[in-house]
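pasting for ref
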Amino acid sequence: MTIHDWHTGPYPARVRIAVAEKGLQPQVRFHSVDLLKGEHKQPGFLAINYSGTLPVLELADGSFIAECTAITEYLDHLDGQPTLTGTTAFEKGTIHMMSRRAELEVLDAISVYFHHATPGLGPTVELYQNAEWGLRQRDKALRGMRYFDSVLKTQSFVAGEVFSMADITLFGGLVFAEIVRVAVPPELSALHAWHARMLARPSVEGWKTM
């Protein structure tokens, strides 16, 4: 399998952590797509992913799977023993719900802030910017952090008492927040404690160096 990504990207981080959690590193080759040069928006890359986003999983038969959730689902079920996306109907529903909330309320909101209220990836990529919208999304991300702090005050992980795809998604959001210098408010002690546990997790420690 080949994963087309960028080694420090917050969205690629999600799939890299999933690869490590499943012990799939020997089966995966990483192909670098330079975000800073806008390679993900060039015709060659758009031919494999219409959305022009990273990461993309390329399979041996030449087919492609894009979107972090879809890629994680695929990787998690390769061995028939899913550990990241749930096994019961309730677990699956809860993990997908909380992962989507982490996307909407933190990760994607930070992404919009980056692309609209900062220089982003530069003028060749950022063809339209709306700074006001970007700042509103930054504030949304901060509200999202407060929400997840309240969740983590009552349970160990984002979707309950077991590490899951939802934790990976929220971690990706905090990776992006650090890149754009949107700090987690210091009073969010439960979120900070969770983040420290995530940083100590072997799959998280080495995701940039795969």
